[in-house]
Design a protein that fits this description.
4 copies of one chain form a homotetramer. In chain A, 26% of the residues lie in helices and 22% in strands. Chain A has 2 domains: 2-152 and 342-354, Rossmann fold (3-Layer(aba) Sandwich); 155-334, Dihydrodipicolinate Reductase, domain 2. The N and C termini of chain A lie close together (10 Å). In chain A, helix 1 (12-21) packs across helix 10 and helix 5 packs parallel to helix 7. Chain A has 359 residues and is α/β, with parallel strands linked by helices. Chain A has helices at 12-21, 43-46, 92-103, 135-143, 155-171, 195-198, 209-220, 263-272, 301-304, 342-354, and strands at residues 2-7, 27-34, 72-74, 85-88, 107-110, 148-151, 173-182, 223-224, 229-230, 235-242, 249-257, 290-292, 313-321, 327-334.
């Protein structure tokens, strides 16, 4: 079994890692780390509210009893000697400090954005750009590390990049316009959108989000050419909004393709898309990367976010667009805290284990 | 005083007409009509639930006591002899039958879509295309009517057309891509989206809506050339969705302009837009047709829908778009049941009274 | 295998029956019936929207493919000859006509209220009042039927009666005061509370609900004495409200006990409550009838409604009450469309099969 | 004009004070104070988000331009020499330190709970227990202060105490059982219930709330007997929950009266209740302290919270209760951030000005 630590283990994403790794066939949780405040306490105490005694367990899934008695370490001083992977679920400013420290010796798979835009760092989605994993070798060499850092994309990028990939392969892409209607869980808990703000409302701005989606989509669909990734040449233009939905990002996408294509061809390309190299066999992989509905009332976040345990991206309303050149438009739903966060990062770990990057 | 009837008076839009006409300086409610079931009953009885006695009053505003004792007529047999205007708030299939009957002698201002796409029928938004009112003379002549029919646009078109107008005038428009996040009240009451469906959800389809917006926007911004309106030449491509918001449609708009323009110029053109012919002086007109926010967290439907009593369109997040030629993107909020429905229709009535179409 | 029909199969409760019976070890779906409009069509066609082709499938669970090609019969003329059980999911006025017709020959288990208050009709909750099943023999005899009718309680009664039972057994009950905060799904679909009404709101009245809860709780906890059930002697006083929750009724309960009891004793009595006669071994039964939380922030409908697949009742905040004599107060969450509806009715069928009432 | 400071002016309650005092006929805002971080900055800067520049203005009402250029003082070092009243909108731990300091010389009217339970401190609701103001004299004497402290009640107590008062006066009260369904705005902003928690949910616990309601209701309806208030003798038992409503607390109340009374008598006593001493003439007072609906679907928080600008308490569903001795039950809605917070505190100031406690 590969031995993993979860850093930021008491937060919402950390807990999602705990759920995603429960009964995992290849990976076991060997260590939990968090801030100094939690250090030295049993996990159960560390997530108990001091005043009321209530457990601060944020997942819909039940408590994972197996980790409740584990002692939480101080992330800044964690003993990483016996570990194989470190899953990093900390905020970006913390990630900047902690992740390079860990990466000197160990593999770091991160949900933070801190290193996503470095030249020698891939942003991996297994099945979409698995071949970018080779950039890890460049990174190791350049930085002189035994380990490495691989962040996953921003949760809003994930579904977009996945659904664009078969279009890109089959028809080419000139440009993308996208409006997102994002779920509350993406806002994290400490900086959470409070009920008072979002009730009976839409919030038309999420700081930094649009830039991330635009840049990451180009990088993920870019070409790996020996020592670096050249970003895909299409432009991406987004407006990212927050709506009153608990989980599941909805995106309204308009794509200009190079070749032109019929609605049925796009649906088929998406339905038949299987990834590049049998990623479908990885334990956390969905059986279908993309599910396409004909019913115009789908996808809906509440009905579709959990498809294939939140790992499939669900598409509907594929139609011609008459504004963009060879335009196609559709709507997608992607589970922002499953495929778009911890479980997506676990899928990256599985890919890297299978392909020999983690020994 | 101009004497008005409200047809469909017991429904949600009918009640909004009652509210919009309360204490109106130029227009008084002279008759109420509804289906045969309500005919002959006092208005208060007609909107009382038979079982519980509860009043089915759907507006946030308090009951308008003045109409409670008026007798509701059967719309199909209404005596229109003493009336000047008939406000029609019925469904489209009813409108097809009733409105031409009324229009033989009287002015019909309608929220239904039944006649919007007829060649000799203008879709009026005062201040945006007031000059299209001249098409009324063509209509009267062609059809041999003493009266005429003027529908208002679909509520999703209204805010879009208003915000596009100053852009169109100042910079020209090549094309428009729009994703709407529409409020529940637009769904009407009988065919209402039920709480069970929309809670924790987005519904990615509203039957017929996208076609309406595309076609109406072209017609409203089209040129009136003597005897007909030639639709504006730009294409419009939309995805219309429903979100968990009570009132106020939010729209994420991407526009390709002809000339190119800076963000500041667009903001200024919107802010300074005053309409074509002093429509601002009409009793129900907003003081500012468009309000532009710099705060990136605006507009929000809950905070901005009621601006200038729901008659202003509120815009924010004006930015450059890098996908469309000379691209500009922004977000708007428009009150779908005020400017977008009954009160918008009353504003049309005011324009037509001022300009001599209603005597 | 016992052969069952579902009457009202195209509605929301009917579909919940289909889900509850999928892969059932003892019962198979042998017939589906609905109104005349659906008769003669395949189930899949019968639930397709004529205009859009969208499937009107109301459950969170995926479509049950096995029934999609079954032909729907006209409920009024259904051929019941080969059937053992008829699950009735029709409205109460329909139930009044259809259920006695079926009961002449067959067993009818119903979610409708039509026969709940008849003297010779038990309202069964397996594990709570299984012994009331004996009233079936009286019913058969009195009415000269080969079959019989057993309705389940109103969904708001279910959780209340279950949690009261161990208190009643251990400490006796003088009186109960209850305020419910009920989910939207309980409102049904045709008469559904629309999103417009419940958003940012509480609705303080549900027609008929309070009377049902008061009467049914007394009957369920009443004594079966040979030929009839004498209602329990305590009074019940409720206020039933609707809140913006999709599934899961929350109830705030205040109980006056006869004996007096400590908080810990009540928690223990609830936790250890196992039902009267091994009902726990029935296929749809929860492993724990009642789950008791110490965390004061529980139960919450979103977190607790699905406990043991929606068949457990979840309790928290057990405290002393200082107003009622020997007062105890607590909060419960009960899944109104699982234990409180179709799956609860299937549990009744299982009890009746096991105990020989259905051959 | 009476000169007032608002302490805690940048928070949500502080901003509600600014709104409540805009254009006030008797009181003007002479100073604003907050934490050290805001000290020395213009109010507009103090409420601007450092990163985005967005204004953190939490009220539905528009920005009060008049205060935007006022300089915010450090609350701990505020110059109080020219002031008459200090409205305190700080958290309870801050209030414990700051309020006695201010009260040595000045009148402090507070929304914090810090001093509510002191023997010589009244909890005032004008019209309900205005005569308790006389306790101020005792307080001044005991403590040797020129000024004094008068807190308003917890927002959940307010509506309860108001509706109980006419019952108490006319029929006497033995005991009260209450379940609240409280709005999100009551949770404050820093410790706000986040959207993720409350969406599709009810939270069955609000720390400390139930104890406050029980104790404060007894004190408010207690007798002032020369030098102290003896709490009313009835017991109060509550369960306080949070629901997905923005503003407006809903409470389901069960009351045991001493005398017994008919539903109509209770409705009349509430409707005719006018307060003790012409409080109705105070500028912020509602014209009707209590509004009683016959429609069983009222009160609803969204429709009724704003009655008389949020200063009236709205009651419905008055019925007999058959559990409590001479039992009556009803539902109330009270605006928790108007009558229940800042504007309620301004009403207290008006009472004290009129009656000569503030010179």
């Amino acid at each position: 079994m590969v031995k993993a630590a979860i850093v930021g283990a008491t937060g919402i994403v950390g807990q999602q890692f705990i759920v995603a790794l429960k009964d995992h066939p290849w990976i076991e949780i060997a260590a939990l780390a968090a801030s100094e405040r939690s250090a030295g306490r049993r996990y159960k105490e560390a997530i108990s509210d001091a005043q009321s005694g209530a457990l601060r367990w944020f997942c819909q899934e039940p408590l994972v009893e197996e980790v409740m008695t584990m002692t939480v370490q101080n992330a800044a001083e964690m003993d990483i000697s016996g570990l194989d992977i470190i899953f990093s679920a900390v905020e970006s400013d913390q990630a900047k400090i902690l992740e390079p420290k860990f990466a000197k010796d160990k593999v770091v798979i991160s949900t933070a954005s801190a290193f996503r835009y470095e030249e020698d760092v891939p942003i991996l989605i297994p099945g979409i750009n698995s071949e970018h994993a080779k950039l890890i070798n460049v990174q190791r060499k350049t930085r002189g590390w035994k380990g490495f850092i691989t962040p996953i994309p921003n949760c809003t990028t994930t579904g977009l990049a996945i659904t664009l990939k078969p279009i890109y392969e089959s028809f080419g892409i000139n440009a993308i316009i996208m409006t997102s209607m994002q779920a509350l869980s993406g806002a994290g808990r400490s900086s959470g959108v409070i009920g008072l703000d979002i009730l009976d409302n839409v919030i038309p701005f999420i700081a930094g989000e649009e830039e991330k989606v635009q840049r990451e989509t180009q990088k993920i669909l870019g070409d790996f050419a020996g020592s670096s990734v050249s970003p895909a040449k299409f432009n991406v233009s987004c407006t990212c909004t927050r709506v009153n939905v608990r989980e599941g990002h909805t995106e309204s996408v308009f794509v200009s393709t190079e070749k032109g294509c019929e609605v049925g061809e796009v649906a088929r390309a998406m339905r038949e898309y299987k990834g590049s190299a049998n990623e479908i066999e990885l334990p956390s992989a969905p059986k279908h990367m993309i599910i396409v509905h004909e019913d115009p009332f789908r996808p809906q976040p509440r009905l579709d976010r959990d498809a294939e345990d939140g790992m499939a991206t669900v598409v509907g309303r594929i139609r011609k667009d008459n504004v963009l050149k060879n335009g196609i438009k559709y709507v997608l739903v992607s589970h922002n805290t499953k495929m778009g966060a911890a479980k997506g990062a676990v899928l990256v770990a599985e890919l890297l284990i299978r392909d020999g990057y983690i020994s």
